[in-house]
């Protein structure tokens, strides 16, 4: 017995009574058995906790861990996702899902969006602008309207950050216009706000064209026919800011990816009622010409059916409008419109 006690970390561990208590699942360590007066090895304590705990006890802890997440860590991870956004829909949906996962911290995450819009480069700002659309879509789907309210409140600040007044924001004017149009169609932003922002974007687009950052109004296909005096910038004309080659290549690839996604969404009908309303608005009111055309088509159809079936008696306009007595019309063979 002495040898077994010397080999074990704690001498009393080899006791059959203690071994049965440690391995017995029916004994609760909090109620049925008082806490031991000795320090058990870590392996036995871990095994005992596994045996006495159930899977249902772990679920509230995991849910509580999500709710009680560190706000600083949540902000850092969300900021990292915004910094590494690209033109793919997957990255936008991932960031939007993260924002909805921690929707209890919506104000902090919204402030992260504003901070990254003011600190990041123009390519990242464009990606964040597209990501805002996905966040608002998910917020409306889950009926969490705080994100939509905060974006509506700070939409002017967001537009100024994505497409600033200086020449560097000229490349994002089209991005802002496209996202605002989508948000207006989905009902996230009122039309009056979009119209006011559009007036500001027109002025910035004009100033960007004067700075030589946007495409010519008539296109660039005739630039080769222009004399050098019109193609070379004048000395007094502001020049475009220096852009990194890597950023230019990245923007080209991202624009190509966005155009690909837009072509895929051309044939998608998001709301069936919208198409019906459009057809209803485009259709003219019913007039006398429509009635005349209907009567002519009715008589032509009756004549065509009578030619195909000799036993069929064609109906006239009185039958069409119900002005004939049913007793008088019943003696005309198949005057009721039936055919063989």
Secondary-structure topology with pairs:
Elements: H1 2-7, H2 16-23, H3 42-52, H4 55-67, H5 71-83, H6 89-101, H7 106-119, H8 122-141, H9 146-153, H10 155-162, H11 173-185, H12 191-210, H13 228-231, H14 245-264, H15 272-282, H16 288-308, H17 317-321, H18 326-329
Would you mind describing this structure in some detail?
Helix 6 (89-101) packs across helix 8. The chain has 18 helices and no strands. Helix content is 62%, strand content 0%. It has helices spanning 2-7, 16-23, 42-52, 55-67, 71-83, 89-101, 106-119, 122-141, 146-153, 155-162, 173-185, 191-210, 228-231, 245-264, 272-282, 288-308, 317-321, 326-329. Residues 1-14, 26-33, 43-66, 209-240 and 328-340 have low confidence and may be disordered. It is elongated and about 85 Å long. Among the domains are: 2-48, no CATH class; 70-213, Serine Threonine Protein Phosphatase 5, Tetratricopeptide repeat (Alpha Horseshoe), CATH 1.25.40; 290-329, no CATH class. The termini are far apart. The chain is mainly α and 340 residues long.
Over the alpha carbons, how many angstroms does the gyration radius reach? 37 Å
> Which CATH class of the domain at 70-213 applies here?
Mainly Alpha
- DSSP strand (E) fraction? under 5%
Q: SSE order, as H and E?
A: HHHHHHHHHHHHHHHHHH
Can you tell me the residue ranges where pLDDT is under 50 for at least 5 consecutive residues?
A: 1-14, 26-33, 43-66, 209-240, 328-340
Sketch the major β-sheet.
none
- Report the span from N to C terminus: 109 Å
Number of strands: 0
Report the helical percentage. Answer: 55-70%
Shape type: elongated
Decide which structural class fits the backbone: mainly alpha
Q: What is the subunit organization of this protein?
A: single chain
Query: What fold name goes in the CATH topology slot of the domain at 70-213?
Result: Serine Threonine Protein Phosphatase 5, Tetratricopeptide repeat
Based on the structure given, which CATH architecture of the domain at 70-213 is correct?
A: Alpha Horseshoe
């Amino acid at each position: 017995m002495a040898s077994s006690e010397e080999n074990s970390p704690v001498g009393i561990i080899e006791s059959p009574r203690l071994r049965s208590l440690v391995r017995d699942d029916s004994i609760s360590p909090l109620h049925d058995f008082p806490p031991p007066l000795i320090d058990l090895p870590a392996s036995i304590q871990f095994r005992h906790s596994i045996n006495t705990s159930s899977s249902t006890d772990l679920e509230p802890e995991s849910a509580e861990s999500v709710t009680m997440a560190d706000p600083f860590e949540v902000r850092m991870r969300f900021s990292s996702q915004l910094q590494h956004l690209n033109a793919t829909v997957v990255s936008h949906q991932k960031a939007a899902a993260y924002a909805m996962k921690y929707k209890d911290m919506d104000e902090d995450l919204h402030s992260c969006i504003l901070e990254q819009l003011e600190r990041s480069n123009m390519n990242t700002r464009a990606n964040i602008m597209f990501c805002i659309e996905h966040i608002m879509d998910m917020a409306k789907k889950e009926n969490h309207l705080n994100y939509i309210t905060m974006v509506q409140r700070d939409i002017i600040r967001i537009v100024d950050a994505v497409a600033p007044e200086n020449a560097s924001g000229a490349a994002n004017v089209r991005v802002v216009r496209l996202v605002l149009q989508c948000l207006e169609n989905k009902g996230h932003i009122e039309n009056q706000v979009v119209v006011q922002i559009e007036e500001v974007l027109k002025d910035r687009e004009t100033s960007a064209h004067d700075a030589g950052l946007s495409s010519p109004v008539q296109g660039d296909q005739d630039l080769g026919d222009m004399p050098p005096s019109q193609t070379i910038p004048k000395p007094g004309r502001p020049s475009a800011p220096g852009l990194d080659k890597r950023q230019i290549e990245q923007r080209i690839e991202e624009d190509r990816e966005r155009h690909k996604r837009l072509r895929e969404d051309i044939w998608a009908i998001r709301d069936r009622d919208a198409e019906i309303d459009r057809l209803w608005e485009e259709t003219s009111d019913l007039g006398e010409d429509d009635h005349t055309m209907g009567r002519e088509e009715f008589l032509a159809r009756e004549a065509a059916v009578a030619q195909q079936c000799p036993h069929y008696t064609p109906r006239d306009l009185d039958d069409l409008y119900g002005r004939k007595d049913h007793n008088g019309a019943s003696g005309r063979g198949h005057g009721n419109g039936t055919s063989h």
